[in-house]
Amino acid sequence: MAEDFRTLLMESDRLEDGDRWFGDIQIGGWFYFSAQAGPFHESRPRTLQGPMGYESFELRLQTVSGVISYGRHGAWEELSDKPWASLFAKDGPTVMRAPDVPVATCQRIYEDLLEYARTHPLP
After folding, report:
1. In the chain, what are the domain boundaries?
2. Exposed, middle or buried: residue 44 (CB in 10 Å: 0-12, 13-18, 19+)?
3. C-alpha count within 13 angstroms, C-beta hemisphere, residue 52
């Protein structure tokens, strides 16, 4: 089992209105794994907490280079077979987005992305 993804979340931005963002986690040369939570994100709870204080996160996935859903960096073609893939919808051609994803599922996604990056050479 990989490190708990929440231990890698570092606050990267906080706005005056209370909106807060955690920095993306880069996985290999393949992915950006964005886990966000708080009053302006689809998470539980919808209050400002430390990373360990959330039951669910709003996730965004994208490839470091190119488009995630097709083409040379089209990792989604293979990842779409994962049991968690149905949680995601395209948020444009470069980003996949999933609201309110439970922590255990976030961890599974993180580990599956680590495995994909480990077993697939960059194009």
Report:
1. 5-119
2. middle
3. 2
Question: Is there a contact between 73 and 123 (Cβ–Cβ < 8 Å)?
Answer: yes
3-class DSSP state of 56: strand
Residues 55-91: b if buried by 16+ CB within 10 A, e if exposed = ebbbbbbbbbebbbbeeebbbbeebeebebeebbeee
Helical (H) or strand (E) element with 79 = helix 76-79
Is residue 94 within 8 A of residue 60, CB to CB? The reply is no
On whether the pTM is more than 0.85, the answer is: yes
Q: Which of 54, 36, 44 is nearest to 91 (CA)?
A: 36
* Whole-number Cα distances in Å, 107 to 11, 35, 57, 101: 19, 11, 11, 10
Q: What is the pLDDT of residues 15-71, one digit of tens each?
A: 777 789 999 999 988 999 999 999 999 999 999 999 999 999 999 999 888 767 666
Strands 20-22 and 31-36: unpaired
Neighbours of 50 (CB within 10 A): 10
Tokens representing 120? 């697939």
